[in-house]
Design a protein that fits this description.
- By secondary structure, the protein is of the alpha/beta class.
- It has a single domain, classed as P-loop containing nucleotide triphosphate hydrolases (Rossmann fold, 3-Layer(aba) Sandwich).
- It has 8 helices and 5 strands; from the N terminus they run βαβααβααβααβα.
- A 5-stranded parallel β-sheet has the order 2-3-1-4-5, with helices on both faces.
- About 30% of the residues are buried.
């Protein structure tokens, strides 16, 4: 199976991926942040590097999905190929940080790639308010994230909600981390595990 975790910057995707992988003995596939050659430049000058960054992510995630389906084991993936196409790239375009020709070029490539891969068997969407996102971003203290603006996070949240409302590619589970703080208590993490169990295996 292929499980995917989606959510805004700072929502807790990597942590949830790690915890679920450990519990269910799944193989985790993480977002390539530390080795990303564009991420620091992007946060310094979004307009100059937005197209390069999105193409890098698209290529990276496409390769991940190809490998996931080849492996024949259950994999949980930190962030999906769809989020870049329906949330991050259109947001950059609407903010004037990606040229229209670049966005159209990117989206044509995404449509081709997405037609060649299967969607995840379960999508887990982590919903978080902007104050929660800011708190968690500050807590992890990545230097390049210091310059992220509140309006940028707010716009991304709005796009996430619109995407989730229209998502029809398979099963989806929504975890609201304003109310279920799985990183803070074992009890809340158990609730998440029970809900994942119910979606995948029909238990509880």
């Amino acid at each position: 199976m292929h499980i995917a975790v989606a959510g805004n910057i700072g929502s807790g995707k990597t942590t949830l991926t790690e915890l679920l992988a450990k519990h269910f003995k799944w193989e985790p596939h993480y977002e390539d942040v530390d080795d990303n050659p564009y991420i620091n430049d992007f946060y310094e000058d979004m307009q100059r590097w937005s197209f390069n960054l999105q193409i890098y992510f698209l290529n990276n995630r496409f390769n991940q999905i190809i490998n996931i389906r080849k492996q024949g084991v259950t994999v949980i993936q930190d962030r999906t190929i769809y989020e870049d196409a329906y949330i991050f790239a259109p947001n950059l375009h609407s903010m004037g940080l990606m040229a229209t020709r670049d966005f159209e070029n990117y989206f044509t490539l995404f449509n081709l790639m997405s037609s060649l891969v299967q969607p995840p068997d379960l999508l887990i969407y982590i919903r978080a308010s902007v104050p929660t996102l800011v708190h968690q971003i500050q807590k992890r203290g990545r230097k390049y994230e210091n310059s992220i603006r509140l309006d940028y996070l707010k716009r991304l949240n709005e796009r996430y909600e619109a995407w989730v409302a229209s998502y029809n590619l398979g099963k989806m589970l929504v975890i609201d981390v304003d109310n279920i703080q799985f990183t803070e208590t074992n009890e809340d993490m158990s609730k998440v595990i029970d809900r994942v169990d119910a979606e995948l295996f029909g238990l509880f």
